[in-house]
Design a protein that fits this description.
Layout: H1 3-9, H2 11-51, H3 87-91, H4 106-125, H5 129-151, H6 156-169, H7 178-203, H8 210-223, H9 228-249, H10 261-281
Length: 284
């Protein structure tokens, strides 16, 4: 009996495996969220130096694997036993084992959220192509959410990869017919692109970044154009509510931009599980 057959015959085992996998991937996503923006910045600096005709300095390797994770305060390298998702943070009581510097609770929360959402994906779709796609979508959206929160960037390498994966899966109609997926990718990009230019022409300011266009295009490629109205409506309503709350209760300046990507990502996850009911509920 193959592994897939075994998991298909035992849903609790499949969900449990997905939970463990999600916890491990969540630990890796913490690295992605922290390092990808810095990797992008290093690349931009190198490109700028080349354009200026300057000698490009040799930098120490810095990617998702090198160097090993370490404490940002004392430089202590994180050992394998200190890198067990959620449990290590609890065992260490949220502090570096070497210098005692507090470790943000965001790390175990991302691991836990990834694990739970992974279990939900396999519980909903099973060990199938749709289940594998749901896992990939979940991983990408979690990483994009926190990168956008931290830096207001949505890396092209991630949003465009997500778009092509969605189209690839929908060659076989996993989440939507291919024609609907292609139309969704086009419409998703053009929708926010049009809003961007209308806002800029009316106010002279930029209301959002191009990464938002690409993320909505990716979601359109996954779920088809029919899902776009509910996705954009949910993201806009939640984003507006959060923005108003920040201005009223935390005195968040109106001139300070609020990232829109996390709300698109959240709406995308809702579309994954409740796409048709949401569309019916909104009368779309």
């Amino acid at each position: 009996m193959g592994i897939v057959s075994l998991l298909a015959d035992s849903p609790p085992l499949a969900v449990g495996c997905a939970l463990v996998l999600g916890l491990a991937i969540g630990s890796f996503l913490n690295v992605v969220i922290l390092r990808v923006p810095r990797m992008m910045e290093n690349e931009w600096n190198l490109q700028a130096a080349e354009v200026r005709g300057e000698t490009v300095p040799e930098l120490a390797p810095f990617n998702l694997v090198t160097p090993r994770s370490r404490c940002g305060s004392c430089g202590h390298q994180i050992t394998a036993i200190e890198n067990i998702p959620v449990l290590s943070w609890l065992f260490l009581r949220g502090r570096c084992s070497s210098c005692g510097t507090p470790i943000s609770a965001r790390y175990p929360l991302i691991e836990l959220a990834t694990g739970l959402l992974s279990a939900a994906a396999i519980w909903r779709f099973g060990p199938t192509a749709a289940g594998a796609g749901a896992l990939l979508l979940t991983f990408f959206l979690i990483a994009l959410t926190f990168i956008d929160f931290d830096t207001q960037l949505l890396p092209d390498d991630m949003t465009l990869s997500l778009l092509w994966i969605g189209l690839l899966l929908n060659l076989w109609g996993v989440f939507a017919p291919l024609e609907s997926a292609v139309a969704g990718a086009i419409a998703g990009y053009l929708l926010l692109w049009s809003v961007y230019w209308l806002f800029k022409l009316a106010t002279g300011r930029e209301g959002m970044g191009y990464g938002d266009f690409k993320l909505l295009a990716a979601l359109g490629a996954w779920f088809g154009w029919q899902a776009l109205p509910s996705i954009i409506l949910l993201a806009s309503v939640v984003g507006a509510a959060v923005g108003i709350s920040l201005i009223v209760f935390r005195r968040h300046g109106r001139e300070i931009p609020i990232p829109f990507g996390p709300y698109l990502a959240g709406a995308g996850l809702l579309a994954l599980y409740f796409g048709k009911p949401l569309s019916n509920w909104f009368g779309l």
